[in-house]
Amino acid sequence: MAGKTVVVGVDSSAAATRAAAFGWQLARAARADCRFVHVIPDTWLSDYAGQPVMGARPLLDEVIEHGRARIVEALAATVPPAGLTRVEVRVGRPAVGLRAAAEDRNAAYVVVGGKHHTAVGRAFAGSTAQDLVRTLDRPLIAVGEREGPVRRILVALDLSEASRPTLLAARRLARLWDAELRVLHVVEPVRVPVTIPFVLDEVEITRQAEAAFARLARAASGTPQGEWLVRRGPAVQVITDLAAEWAADLVVVGSHGKGWVDRVLIGSATERLLGALPTAIGVIPTGRRTARARLPRKVGARPRPRRHKQGVAA
Protein backbone atom coordinates (compact mmCIF):
# COMPACT_ATOMS: atom_id res chain seq x y z
CA MET A 1 0.00 0.00 0.00
CA ALA A 2 3.00 2.29 0.40
CA GLY A 3 2.90 5.11 -2.14
CA LYS A 4 -0.88 4.99 -2.49
CA THR A 5 -3.55 7.20 -1.00
CA VAL A 6 -6.25 7.15 1.64
CA VAL A 7 -9.22 9.31 0.60
CA VAL A 8 -11.35 10.60 3.48
CA GLY A 9 -14.81 12.06 2.88
CA VAL A 10 -15.36 15.01 5.21
CA ASP A 11 -17.84 17.71 6.12
CA SER A 12 -18.19 19.74 9.31
CA SER A 13 -20.02 17.00 11.29
CA ALA A 14 -18.67 15.12 14.31
CA ALA A 15 -18.82 11.85 12.31
CA ALA A 16 -16.61 13.34 9.61
CA THR A 17 -14.15 14.59 12.23
CA ARG A 18 -13.81 11.04 13.58
CA ALA A 19 -13.36 9.77 10.02
CA ALA A 20 -10.62 12.34 9.42
CA ALA A 21 -8.73 11.23 12.54
CA PHE A 22 -9.09 7.56 11.56
CA GLY A 23 -8.03 8.15 7.96
CA TRP A 24 -5.00 10.19 8.99
CA GLN A 25 -3.87 7.48 11.41
CA LEU A 26 -4.42 4.77 8.77
CA ALA A 27 -2.39 6.71 6.20
CA ARG A 28 0.43 7.26 8.70
CA ALA A 29 0.49 3.54 9.58
CA ALA A 30 0.59 2.61 5.89
CA ARG A 31 3.06 5.34 4.90
CA ALA A 32 0.50 6.58 2.40
CA ASP A 33 -0.73 10.00 1.34
CA CYS A 34 -3.99 11.19 2.89
CA ARG A 35 -6.49 13.41 1.06
CA PHE A 36 -9.55 14.95 2.68
CA VAL A 37 -12.36 15.41 0.15
CA HIS A 38 -15.40 17.61 0.73
CA VAL A 39 -18.20 17.44 -1.84
CA ILE A 40 -20.62 20.36 -2.15
CA PRO A 41 -24.05 19.57 -3.65
CA ASP A 42 -24.51 21.24 -7.01
CA THR A 43 -28.30 21.33 -7.35
CA TRP A 44 -28.40 25.09 -6.90
CA LEU A 45 -25.94 25.51 -9.80
CA SER A 46 -28.00 23.62 -12.41
CA ASP A 47 -31.24 24.15 -14.25
CA TYR A 48 -33.87 21.43 -14.73
CA ALA A 49 -31.92 20.05 -17.69
CA GLY A 50 -28.80 19.70 -15.59
CA GLN A 51 -26.97 22.53 -17.36
CA PRO A 52 -24.93 25.15 -15.45
CA VAL A 53 -26.80 28.31 -14.54
CA MET A 54 -25.45 31.31 -16.44
CA GLY A 55 -22.93 33.26 -14.37
CA ALA A 56 -22.56 30.52 -11.77
CA ARG A 57 -18.80 30.05 -12.17
CA PRO A 58 -17.63 33.06 -10.09
CA LEU A 59 -20.10 32.10 -7.38
CA LEU A 60 -18.90 28.48 -7.55
CA ASP A 61 -15.29 29.57 -6.99
CA GLU A 62 -16.35 31.55 -3.96
CA VAL A 63 -18.37 28.63 -2.57
CA ILE A 64 -15.41 26.26 -3.04
CA GLU A 65 -13.06 28.54 -1.13
CA HIS A 66 -15.63 29.07 1.62
CA GLY A 67 -16.15 25.29 1.83
CA ARG A 68 -12.43 24.68 2.08
CA ALA A 69 -12.03 27.22 4.89
CA ARG A 70 -14.96 25.69 6.79
CA ILE A 71 -13.50 22.16 6.52
CA VAL A 72 -10.01 23.29 7.55
CA GLU A 73 -11.51 24.97 10.60
CA ALA A 74 -13.56 21.86 11.48
CA LEU A 75 -10.53 19.54 11.19
CA ALA A 76 -7.99 21.81 12.88
CA ALA A 77 -8.38 20.14 16.29
CA THR A 78 -8.06 16.62 14.84
CA VAL A 79 -5.66 16.76 11.91
CA PRO A 80 -2.08 18.10 12.09
CA PRO A 81 -1.30 21.29 10.09
CA ALA A 82 0.42 19.23 7.38
CA GLY A 83 -2.84 17.38 6.76
CA LEU A 84 -4.88 20.57 6.44
CA THR A 85 -3.03 21.38 3.21
CA ARG A 86 -4.51 18.21 1.69
CA VAL A 87 -8.15 19.32 1.57
CA GLU A 88 -9.91 19.02 -1.80
CA VAL A 89 -13.32 20.49 -2.57
CA ARG A 90 -15.48 18.98 -5.29
CA VAL A 91 -18.95 19.78 -6.53
CA GLY A 92 -21.62 17.15 -7.17
CA ARG A 93 -23.22 14.23 -5.35
CA PRO A 94 -21.14 13.15 -2.33
CA ALA A 95 -20.82 9.47 -3.29
CA VAL A 96 -20.02 10.30 -6.92
CA GLY A 97 -17.46 12.91 -5.92
CA LEU A 98 -15.73 10.55 -3.49
CA ARG A 99 -15.65 7.73 -6.07
CA ALA A 100 -14.10 10.12 -8.60
CA ALA A 101 -11.51 11.28 -6.05
CA ALA A 102 -10.66 7.68 -5.18
CA GLU A 103 -10.22 6.83 -8.84
CA ASP A 104 -8.14 9.94 -9.57
CA ARG A 105 -5.82 9.16 -6.65
CA ASN A 106 -5.88 5.36 -7.07
CA ALA A 107 -6.94 5.21 -3.43
CA ALA A 108 -6.16 2.08 -1.44
CA TYR A 109 -8.96 2.94 1.03
CA VAL A 110 -11.88 5.33 1.24
CA VAL A 111 -12.85 6.43 4.76
CA VAL A 112 -16.15 8.10 5.69
CA GLY A 113 -18.15 8.78 8.81
CA GLY A 114 -20.91 6.23 9.35
CA LYS A 115 -24.47 7.47 9.77
CA HIS A 116 -27.32 5.36 11.16
CA HIS A 117 -30.55 5.01 9.19
CA THR A 118 -33.84 3.21 9.61
CA ALA A 119 -35.17 0.75 7.03
CA VAL A 120 -37.26 3.57 5.51
CA GLY A 121 -34.19 5.78 5.38
CA ARG A 122 -32.22 3.05 3.62
CA ALA A 123 -34.98 2.62 1.07
CA PHE A 124 -35.63 6.23 0.18
CA ALA A 125 -32.69 8.33 1.33
CA GLY A 126 -29.76 6.14 2.28
CA SER A 127 -26.43 7.70 3.16
CA THR A 128 -23.11 8.37 1.49
CA ALA A 129 -21.63 5.31 3.25
CA GLN A 130 -24.42 3.07 1.97
CA ASP A 131 -24.16 4.48 -1.55
CA LEU A 132 -20.44 3.71 -1.52
CA VAL A 133 -21.00 0.18 -0.17
CA ARG A 134 -23.21 -0.47 -3.20
CA THR A 135 -20.94 1.04 -5.85
CA LEU A 136 -17.34 1.42 -4.72
CA ASP A 137 -14.82 -1.07 -6.13
CA ARG A 138 -12.16 -0.53 -3.47
CA PRO A 139 -12.11 -1.00 0.33
CA LEU A 140 -14.35 1.32 2.31
CA ILE A 141 -14.12 2.03 6.04
CA ALA A 142 -17.14 3.65 7.69
CA VAL A 143 -16.02 5.02 11.05
CA GLY A 144 -18.36 4.54 13.99
CA GLU A 145 -18.87 6.33 17.27
CA ARG A 146 -15.79 4.94 19.02
CA GLU A 147 -12.52 6.81 18.90
CA GLY A 148 -8.93 5.81 19.52
CA PRO A 149 -6.43 3.38 17.96
CA VAL A 150 -7.42 0.07 16.38
CA ARG A 151 -6.31 -2.76 18.66
CA ARG A 152 -8.84 -5.50 17.87
CA ILE A 153 -10.20 -6.47 14.45
CA LEU A 154 -13.07 -8.91 13.91
CA VAL A 155 -13.47 -10.31 10.38
CA ALA A 156 -16.68 -12.14 9.46
CA LEU A 157 -16.46 -14.74 6.67
CA ASP A 158 -19.35 -16.52 4.94
CA LEU A 159 -17.37 -19.41 3.33
CA SER A 160 -18.11 -18.12 -0.17
CA GLU A 161 -15.43 -17.19 -2.72
CA ALA A 162 -15.36 -13.81 -0.98
CA SER A 163 -13.79 -15.30 2.16
CA ARG A 164 -10.16 -15.36 1.08
CA PRO A 165 -9.90 -11.76 -0.25
CA THR A 166 -11.80 -10.52 2.80
CA LEU A 167 -9.45 -12.38 5.17
CA LEU A 168 -6.37 -11.11 3.33
CA ALA A 169 -7.61 -7.54 3.56
CA ALA A 170 -8.33 -7.92 7.28
CA ARG A 171 -4.84 -9.31 7.85
CA ARG A 172 -3.26 -6.37 6.04
CA LEU A 173 -5.16 -3.99 8.30
CA ALA A 174 -4.19 -5.98 11.38
CA ARG A 175 -0.53 -5.78 10.40
CA LEU A 176 -0.77 -2.03 9.80
CA TRP A 177 -2.28 -1.44 13.22
CA ASP A 178 -0.39 -4.28 14.98
CA ALA A 179 -3.87 -5.39 16.08
CA GLU A 180 -5.34 -8.68 17.30
CA LEU A 181 -7.43 -10.50 14.71
CA ARG A 182 -10.40 -12.80 15.25
CA VAL A 183 -12.11 -14.69 12.42
CA LEU A 184 -15.83 -15.43 12.68
CA HIS A 185 -18.27 -17.55 10.69
CA VAL A 186 -21.97 -17.39 11.50
CA VAL A 187 -24.22 -20.38 10.77
CA GLU A 188 -27.64 -18.85 10.28
CA PRO A 189 -30.90 -20.72 10.98
CA VAL A 190 -32.30 -22.29 7.83
CA ARG A 191 -35.63 -20.75 6.81
CA VAL A 192 -37.77 -22.76 4.40
CA PRO A 193 -41.41 -22.35 3.37
CA VAL A 194 -43.84 -24.57 5.29
CA THR A 195 -45.01 -26.03 1.97
CA ILE A 196 -41.68 -27.82 1.39
CA PRO A 197 -42.36 -31.51 2.20
CA PHE A 198 -39.07 -32.37 3.96
CA VAL A 199 -37.10 -31.33 7.02
CA LEU A 200 -33.55 -30.00 6.76
CA ASP A 201 -31.00 -31.44 9.14
CA GLU A 202 -29.65 -28.27 10.75
CA VAL A 203 -27.19 -30.26 12.86
CA GLU A 204 -25.63 -31.69 9.70
CA ILE A 205 -25.62 -28.24 8.03
CA THR A 206 -23.78 -26.83 11.03
CA ARG A 207 -21.31 -29.72 11.01
CA GLN A 208 -20.52 -29.18 7.32
CA ALA A 209 -20.09 -25.43 7.85
CA GLU A 210 -17.72 -26.01 10.76
CA ALA A 211 -15.71 -28.50 8.69
CA ALA A 212 -15.42 -26.04 5.78
CA PHE A 213 -14.42 -23.27 8.18
CA ALA A 214 -11.75 -25.54 9.72
CA ARG A 215 -10.34 -26.28 6.25
CA LEU A 216 -10.16 -22.55 5.54
CA ALA A 217 -8.39 -22.01 8.87
CA ARG A 218 -5.80 -24.71 8.09
CA ALA A 219 -5.17 -23.26 4.65
CA ALA A 220 -4.84 -19.70 5.99
CA SER A 221 -1.62 -19.92 7.96
CA GLY A 222 -0.71 -16.93 10.07
CA THR A 223 -3.85 -16.51 12.19
CA PRO A 224 -3.87 -18.44 15.52
CA GLN A 225 -6.33 -21.33 15.35
CA GLY A 226 -7.89 -20.36 18.68
CA GLU A 227 -9.03 -17.09 17.15
CA TRP A 228 -11.31 -18.81 14.62
CA LEU A 229 -14.87 -18.86 15.95
CA VAL A 230 -18.14 -20.41 14.76
CA ARG A 231 -21.41 -19.04 16.15
CA ARG A 232 -25.06 -19.77 15.36
CA GLY A 233 -27.82 -17.25 14.90
CA PRO A 234 -28.85 -14.29 12.69
CA ALA A 235 -25.61 -13.00 11.16
CA VAL A 236 -26.03 -9.28 11.84
CA GLN A 237 -27.05 -9.86 15.46
CA VAL A 238 -24.23 -12.36 16.13
CA ILE A 239 -21.58 -10.10 14.57
CA THR A 240 -22.87 -7.09 16.51
CA ASP A 241 -22.98 -9.00 19.80
CA LEU A 242 -19.50 -10.47 19.41
CA ALA A 243 -18.03 -7.10 18.41
CA ALA A 244 -19.45 -5.63 21.62
CA GLU A 245 -18.44 -8.65 23.76
CA TRP A 246 -14.85 -8.58 22.51
CA ALA A 247 -14.66 -4.75 22.33
CA ALA A 248 -13.62 -4.86 18.67
CA ASP A 249 -12.43 -1.57 17.19
CA LEU A 250 -13.04 -2.60 13.57
CA VAL A 251 -15.29 -5.20 11.94
CA VAL A 252 -14.32 -6.33 8.43
CA VAL A 253 -16.79 -7.95 6.02
CA GLY A 254 -16.91 -8.76 2.32
CA SER A 255 -19.47 -7.10 0.07
CA HIS A 256 -21.12 -9.15 -2.67
CA GLY A 257 -23.57 -6.52 -3.91
CA LYS A 258 -27.32 -6.97 -4.37
CA GLY A 259 -29.94 -5.97 -6.87
CA TRP A 260 -31.72 -2.65 -6.39
CA VAL A 261 -35.02 -4.30 -5.38
CA ASP A 262 -33.30 -6.41 -2.71
CA ARG A 263 -31.59 -3.36 -1.25
CA VAL A 264 -34.82 -1.36 -1.09
CA LEU A 265 -36.95 -4.12 0.45
CA ILE A 266 -34.57 -5.89 2.81
CA GLY A 267 -31.17 -4.27 2.41
CA SER A 268 -28.04 -6.40 2.80
CA ALA A 269 -26.21 -7.70 5.84
CA THR A 270 -23.45 -5.16 5.21
CA GLU A 271 -25.88 -2.26 5.05
CA ARG A 272 -27.66 -3.43 8.19
CA LEU A 273 -24.30 -3.66 9.98
CA LEU A 274 -23.65 -0.03 9.04
CA GLY A 275 -26.69 0.91 11.08
CA ALA A 276 -26.16 -1.57 13.91
CA LEU A 277 -22.47 -1.35 14.78
CA PRO A 278 -21.14 1.44 17.02
CA THR A 279 -17.63 0.57 15.87
CA ALA A 280 -15.91 1.08 12.53
CA ILE A 281 -16.74 -1.31 9.70
CA GLY A 282 -14.48 -2.16 6.80
CA VAL A 283 -16.19 -3.33 3.61
CA ILE A 284 -14.08 -5.25 1.10
CA PRO A 285 -15.55 -5.51 -2.42
CA THR A 286 -15.29 -9.08 -3.65
CA GLY A 287 -16.49 -11.31 -6.46
CA ARG A 288 -17.58 -9.48 -9.58
CA ARG A 289 -16.46 -5.88 -9.89
CA THR A 290 -19.00 -3.59 -8.32
CA ALA A 291 -20.66 -1.02 -10.54
CA ARG A 292 -18.39 1.96 -11.02
CA ALA A 293 -19.93 5.26 -11.98
CA ARG A 294 -17.42 5.85 -14.75
CA LEU A 295 -17.50 9.29 -16.25
CA PRO A 296 -17.82 9.55 -20.05
CA ARG A 297 -14.42 9.89 -21.69
CA LYS A 298 -13.19 11.65 -24.77
CA VAL A 299 -9.93 10.76 -26.43
CA GLY A 300 -7.15 12.60 -24.63
CA ALA A 301 -9.54 14.14 -22.09
CA ARG A 302 -10.18 13.60 -18.40
CA PRO A 303 -13.65 12.32 -17.38
CA ARG A 304 -16.21 15.14 -17.11
CA PRO A 305 -19.93 14.45 -16.60
CA ARG A 306 -20.81 18.16 -16.65
CA ARG A 307 -18.27 20.93 -16.64
CA HIS A 308 -19.40 22.58 -13.41
CA LYS A 309 -19.39 19.23 -11.62
CA GLN A 310 -15.64 19.02 -12.07
CA GLY A 311 -14.95 22.18 -10.11
CA VAL A 312 -12.10 20.82 -8.01
CA ALA A 313 -9.79 22.80 -5.78
CA ALA A 314 -6.77 20.74 -4.82
What does this structure look like?
The structure is a single chain. By secondary structure, this protein is an alpha/beta fold. The chain has one domain (5-310): Rossmann fold. It is 40% helix and 19% strand. It is built from 11 helices and 10 strands. It has helices spanning 14-30, 56-75, 81-84, 94-105, 119-124, 128-135, 163-177, 202-219, 235-246, 260-265, 269-276, and strands at residues 5-9, 33-40, 87-91, 107-113, 140-143, 152-157, 180-187, 228-232, 250-255, 280-285. Helix 9 packs parallel to helix 11. The longest helix is centred in the N-terminal third of the chain and has 20 residues, at 56-75. It is elongated, with a radius of gyration of 21 Å.
- Succession of helices and strands: EHEHHEHEHHEEHEHEHEHHE
Radius of gyration over all CA atoms, rounded: 21 Å
Strand order of the largest sheet: 3-2-1-4-5-10-9-6-7-8
Shape: elongated
Work out the strand percent.
15-25%
Sheet with most strands: 10 strands, mixed
In CATH's first tier, which class applies? Answer: Alpha Beta
Task: Output mean pLDDT.
Answer: 78
Query: Pairing-aware structural class of the strands and helices?
Result: alpha/beta
Number of strands: 10
- The number of helical segments is 11
The tally of structural domains comes to 1
Low-confidence stretches: 116-126, 258-267, 288-314
Distance between the termini: 22 Å
